[in-house]
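A.,

Following up on our hallway conversation. Structure tokens first:
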């Protein structure tokens, strides 16, 4: 008790060495803490490290995977435009990941020349950065309609594939039977 009293108002710092340590802790540490915070905040929008193609990495991240959906098996088939907007636009509206853009005639022309069947095959099986079915879970006829919609927007003249079997969809009766 009397010791503390003798030291007057010295507090916990009792030697120059302790003072030095305290000064360093009090001034240098916050600087590093701030640097750390700045790095943390600015790191948010950077592409994942090691991503050679950030656009592709983003496209992969925003692509829908694994979700549960309860649906009516007898629902009317989506039109090509609906399929495009729901699924394909993620890449094909902007050309993300090197996808041929909607309405970009020059990019589509050589692809259209390979024929409707080949394009549908690519869309169903996947090609390059495009996952099978464009990453979605539309049925094959709907995917084919999406293909026809995109190809037609770029100058092709593929008819919208009709619904299979005797479904009363409003498909054009004159649709050609493919190749
Ligand atoms: C994750 C992005 C992505 C999505 C989603 C996507 N595509 Fe693609 N698609 C691509 C890319 C990339 C290519 C170019 C592939 C290549 O040539 O290497 C491509 C190419 C194509 C081609 C041309 C294939 C060929 O043989 O030249 C068709 C047709 C196509 N997509 C249809 C679709 C349809 C239909 C959908 C929607 C159901 C869809 N895509 C969704 C990325 C995507």
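Then the amino acids I'd put at each of the 179 positions:
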């Amino acid at each position: 008790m009397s010791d503390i009293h003798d030291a007057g108002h010295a507090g916990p710092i009792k030697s120059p060495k302790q003072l030095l340590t305290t000064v360093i802790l009090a001034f240098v540490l916050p600087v590093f803490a701030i640097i750390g915070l700045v790095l943390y905040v600015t790191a948010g929008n950077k592409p994942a490290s090691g991503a050679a193609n950030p656009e592709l990495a983003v496209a992969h991240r925003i692509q829908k995977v694994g979700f549960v959906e309860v649906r009516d098996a007898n629902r009317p088939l989506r039109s090509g435009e609906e399929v495009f907007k729901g699924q394909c636009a993620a890449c094909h509206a902007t050309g993300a990941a090197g996808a041929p853009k909607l309405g970009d005639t020059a990019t589509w022309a050589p692809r259209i020349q390979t024929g409707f069947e080949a394009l549908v095959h690519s869309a169903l099986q996947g090609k390059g950065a495009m996952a099978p079915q464009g990453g979605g879970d539309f049925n094959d006829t709907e995917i084919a309609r999406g293909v026809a919609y995109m190809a037609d927007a770029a100058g092709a003249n593929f008819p919208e594939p009709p619904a299979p079997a005797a479904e009363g969809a409003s498909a054009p009766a004159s649709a050609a039977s493919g190749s």
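Residues 2-43 form one domain. Curious whether your intuition agrees with the design.

B.
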